[in-house]
Amino acid sequence: MKILSCYTECHTPGCDWARLPQELLLHIFQYLPLLDRAYASQVCRGWNQAFHMPELWRCFEFELNQPASSYLKATHPDLIKQIIKRHSNHLQYVSFKVDSSTESAEAACDILSQLVNCSLKTLGLISTARPSFMEVPKSHFISALTVVFVNSKSLSSLKIDDTPVDDPSLKVLVANNSDTLKLLKMSSCPHVSPAGILCVADQCHGLRELALNYHLLSDELLLALSSEKHVHLEHLRIDVVSENPGQHFHTIKKSSWDAMVRHSPKFNLVMYFFLYEEEFGPFFNDEIPVTHLYFGRSVSKEVLGRVGLHCPRLVELVVCANGLRPLDEELIRIAKHCTQLSAIGLGECEVSCSAFVEFVKMCGRRLSQLSIMEEVLIPDHKYSLDEIHWEVSKHLGRVWFPDMMPTW
Amino acid sequence: KNLPIIIFNINVWALGALWGLRMVVNTIHWFRKGLRLHDNAALRDSIRGSDSLRCIYILDPWFAGSSNVGINRWRFLLQCLEDLDASLRKLNSRLFVIRGQPTDVFPRLFKEWQINRLSYEYDSEPFGKERDAAIQKLASEAGVELMVRISHTLYNLDKIIELNQGQPPLTYKRFQGLINHMEAVELPTETITADVIRTCLTPISDDHDDKYGVPSLEELGFETEGLTTAVWPGGETEALMRLERHLERKAWVANFERPRMNANSLLASPTGLSPYLRFGCLSCRLFYFKLTDLYKKVKKNSTPPLSLYGQLLWREFFYTTATNNPCFDKMDGNPVCVQIPWDRNREALAKWAEGRTGFPWIDAIMTQLRQEGWIHHLARHAVACFLTRGDLWISWEEGMKVFEELLLDADWSVNAGSWMWLSCSSFFQQFFRCYCPVGFGRRTDPNGDFIRRYLPILRTYPAKYIYDPWNAPEDVQKAAKCIIGLHYPKPMVNHAEASRINIERMKQIYQQLSSYRGLVFNMLSSPAAPCPLPHFKIFIHFSVTTSCPILSVTVSLR
């Protein structure tokens, strides 16, 4: 109604654009990209005032790039100065996107150190190329991060993957934000120990989403996340990465996973594997409640066979590479036992056309995502490549084609 | 006001007609691509009614020196020109190689040779269209009749775009669908023979070789000492011979399916045709119809599937997507390219380009590319993935430039399009598939013969370690007389680490894209973000980044 009355007012002769009501200006400005808003703010005093309204400065994404290491533009240093000066206490949702240069990561840390008046709800430290936060001297990084942890006191989401965060700084996080922390993404933080993350799980009972590396996972952690005081967990993402071939990985007891499922029956367990084929020994020997499984390197037929047997909650499966023996039996077993499977992607693998059709038939219409390279499918006596897409489309209930790569 | 002139002209013509005089038609045929005498509609049509014919090729001297074209591509081109010249000699004609820029050359030639007809094969690429527009203007100012015909592509690309509501198709499937609705491909035109030329003469001066002869590599400023014989010899004659061999082999196998990849596929094939299609030594239409005829013969008259023409249709697809997009070979300002925060790293790029990555599979492929000018398409996927989204996270534009320099069949549209495809920058490609620089090679050629051939320093490594020699124990390295880090570089990245980081980067980008298209995500414990501005939606996806793995990120198709 207000907007409507403004509209009428504006269409009467002699209306003053400079005197549009602030709520209307705010509404319009929210749709403008930052640069356009900045131009608009130069038009008159009224619009300049609107530009600086706190509501427009709740969220900001600092883009820190160096011309030598990135093709993209950076947030203007003057704008950064202005934000820190006039709007740091308005900021609530902040992210830093840095390129692969150490200078960009250091600049991010400098800005962080100045956010003393901020009470952030969300903080994201995002490397868009190589993880440059790891190049920053650890003490510099930790002290900058601690400024936010201490001053914010109501952090809800924290994304600090690929950073040198350590156990003591996590303690500071917990001391100040245990009531509000809901989401913590800290994959590939090598300075954190299992004890460090356990401290977070023990104190932050509202934690609903957690992402970390396998070496931080322990039975104690899973039990802490399933304790009565703890809310239902919604997502747990685990990256299993091998530093050197032949690396040994510890096992998690089935009872710990069972406790998780009992406590949070709907939680998603997302696992990314970047291992050598021979390192899968400790995995998939027992039932595991994984829902989303990604194999980034070659995984053997045998392991995929075990996946078929022990992953009843599997929803999504991605296999980058397998090798040149057909995965016929393994796929059919997965179709049979993984009754929730709705998405599958196969890269450098081989499956005979007949087995593939059988697989699709068994899964039926629940397969909403079927991403198979054309080279994966081996024609046999029953189906040629040209025929197979009809058969598969029939069983899926929609038109389907394999993915193709240019051949030139 | 112009009436007197018109009357004057009519009078001249009328007088001429009365006295049985006729305008003498002097023709230039301008070879750019289409370096052949078979299926050359522009040349064939322009000969009709011509009194004199001169076939020219314009060599831009600036181009030879500073352009990004390596020695193999120059040699191929010169061999094509020599072959044309030889074929034209048999018809009492010659090829005229002219140095200069087209906009300077043509006004001069129009005057000198009294030209009133100019023909050339249509060039669909944006740079080509711009150049040709300038020439068209010069021609019309000089009263020169233009004859332009389409023969570098199977179809009239503008018609394909028209069929798609004025937009180029952005998926290969859609493109195939449009092809099914196009009219049949036109038959190849008759080859230029003495019969076709008949009374059309070519004035050849005594000093033709000095003035208009095909230059040598040395004359263009290349160092040819130590240059091995071309693995891919240029020219129409060679192209047609290869076509026959290619069809013979297909007939013998009686199998039109895509051949399975094995160690041998990696080596240059005597029936490979892609460089000849690129330069136009081989007509794509001729290839198309010969394939069709063979298929009908072997499979007893059944209709050939579209997959039979795979190689040709991919080429056609990229030409179609590129023709109206001058920014097609860039990320910035390119409407079909995803803006990805690639890393700038000259040193890393040089290692990749020069085959010094420390990954023998990658280095051997890049060595073959530099030495011979051709690599198998799966090898291209491997090195492209390694440079961009797989390991180095360097822009596809850099890789495209290296291919442009070294790869014989890399023309502008196909090269740029393929690089965008392989780096998942366009065409809605699933980005989860990463080619391992160790595993992929090992599965293709377990014995490692390809590596031994192109990286002789690793020749005595056992098959077990030849793909990852840095893992070989010290005694194995010593026995092979190649210490990693000394005689052959250490691997420049940790592949597991690099691919883990990069897949995460790709996901970040694609999730932001999806948010722009308004797809509904499973928003879980995200904070209620008050600001509706697009670039703040990253916060909404904090939960999604955790929960929403690779495949569930879909982008709606146009």
From TrEMBL, chain A:
Keywords: Biological rhythms, Cytoplasm, Leucine-rich repeat, Nucleus, Repeat, Ubl conjugation pathway. It is found in: Cytoplasm; Nucleus. InterPro entries: F-box-like_dom_sf, F-box_dom, LRR_dom_sf. Its main location: cytoplasm. Pathway: Protein modification; protein ubiquitination. GO terms for cellular component: mitochondrion; nucleus. One of its GO terms (biological process) is regulation of circadian rhythm. Signal peptide: none annotated. Gene3D superfamilies: 1.20.1280.50, Ribonuclease Inhibitor. The keyword Nucleus applies. CDD domains: F-box_FBXL3 (cd22178). Residues 14-60 form the F-box domain. It comes from the Eukaryota. Pfam families: F-box-like. This is F-box domain-containing protein.
Automatic annotation (TrEMBL), chain B:
Residues 25-154 form the Photolyase/cryptochrome alpha/beta domain. The record marks 342, 396, 419 as: Electron transfer via tryptophanyl radical. Its cofactor is FAD; (6R)-5,10-methylene-5,6,7,8-tetrahydrofolate. It is found in: Cytoplasm; Nucleus. One of its GO terms (cellular component) is nucleus. One of its GO terms (biological process) is circadian regulation of gene expression. Keywords: Biological rhythms, Chromophore, Cytoplasm, FAD, Flavoprotein, Nucleotide-binding, Nucleus, Photoreceptor protein, Receptor, Repressor, Sensory transduction, Transcription, Transcription regulation. FAD binds at residues 311-318, 409-411. InterPro entries: Crypto/Photolyase_FAD-like_sf (IPR036134), Crypto/Photolyase_N_sf (IPR036155), Cryptochr/Photolyase_FAD-bd (IPR005101), Cryptochrome/DNA_photolyase_1 (IPR002081), DNA_photolyase_N (IPR006050), Rossmann-like_a/b/a_fold (IPR014729). One of its GO terms (molecular function) is DNA binding. Its main location: cytoplasm. Binds 1 FAD per subunit. Belongs to the DNA photolyase class-1 family. This is Cryptochrome-1. It comes from Periophthalmus magnuspinnatus. The lineage of its organism: Eukaryota, Metazoa, Chordata, Craniata, Vertebrata.
